[in-house]
């Protein structure tokens, strides 16, 4: 279960966060014995530093964690880095940080308690934390719960997280918040004009589907679209084993929009929310779609398949076309779409593309405040010709190897013509453990979007 803040208690242990460039002044204000103890412990307040000050009876009087130098930006969740080393107990954060920095500290303390223990008993978090004065505890708890949902879904292997299980996760979330959730299954996708979703998923014994969740009756309309490829073999353009090893995370876009949906609904934002998830498994059998096939789409555009491993943009295309038909105020898609995005910005940044000037202006600042970094990439019109083959309207995998993330984004933009559109090409995975972010599944961009929505939608 996601962590929440503990109720305030007079027995809570003070957790004092100190910058390394002010540590000497901090120690100078302590009694000599306490200051000497911390110096003996080697506490210099670097990031990840932790020291405990004992009472005479051996209990903990106070704990100190390091923030590093003021203004450092190399490490997110610096408080969590040190707090992870604390002995068991309930702690009350005492810090000079305010505003976004204080929110980040509180968020990191809760996120550091995340454990994925579905298959192997994991050690429970030893520490509990009281919400620091000045933070919106309910908001932070909603963000933590949404992030933990995304992590759990991504971390679950494909054997237990296929299209059916992803649907059940969406249904469970909908039930928890009083939302409606409908599903279009199998051949009904063809009858209701979702040919690309059906084509990508038809080779798997696990039935392809489109999940459609709605919530809210007033306010501006927001539609989230998440790529739900629950496992990607690459299809007939079969991936090598090394590239297939992490493909349980290819539904990371779906996991992230569900986490974001939880945040929105838990905080009861005044908007009309729709979540669309094309959920498929890209498998291989005699019915698999082939390189060279020309496919029809819901939008009426034809697509030449030059690589069956570029299937995510196909299933998203039909879902985006449906989203655009309602002309909401904003459409946001999230997908683990291209390796090119990882080459460009690595695993820690969420690259995004947008046709929405307000989103382009607001999102980077919101991301900074939420410790959820993003980077804007261009819808570069000059590359449109790269996605236009000779025998169809669109090419799903342009040759040449250049600008792979941009051309994928341009492909998706062709299916959203009526609505301001933002697309995230995320990684959805932490390859190396970091403070408050264990190795494994990761929601990316959700907190940044949550913080940007009030200004973008005029909430």
From TrEMBL:
<keyword id="KW-0464">Manganese</keyword>
<dbReference type="Pfam" id="PF21337">
    <property type="entry name" value="Peptidase_M17_N_1"/>
</dbReference>
<dbReference type="Pfam" id="PF00883">
    <property type="entry name" value="Peptidase_M17"/>
</dbReference>
<comment type="similarity">
    <text>Belongs to the peptidase M17 family.</text>
</comment>
<keyword id="KW-0031">Aminopeptidase</keyword>
<dbReference type="GO" id="GO:0004177">
    <property type="term" value="F:aminopeptidase activity"/>
</dbReference>
<dbReference type="InterPro" id="IPR000819">
    <property type="entry name" value="Peptidase_M17_C"/>
</dbReference>
<keyword id="KW-0378">Hydrolase</keyword>
<dbReference type="InterPro" id="IPR043472">
    <property type="entry name" value="Macro_dom-like"/>
</dbReference>
<protein>
    <submittedName>
        <fullName>Leucyl aminopeptidase family protein</fullName>
    </submittedName>
</protein>
<keyword id="KW-0645">Protease</keyword>
<feature type="domain" description="Cytosol aminopeptidase">
    <location>
        <begin position="307"/>
        <end position="314"/>
    </location>
</feature>
<dbReference type="InterPro" id="IPR048816">
    <property type="entry name" value="Peptidase_M17_N_1"/>
</dbReference>
<dbReference type="InterPro" id="IPR011356">
    <property type="entry name" value="Leucine_aapep/pepB"/>
</dbReference>
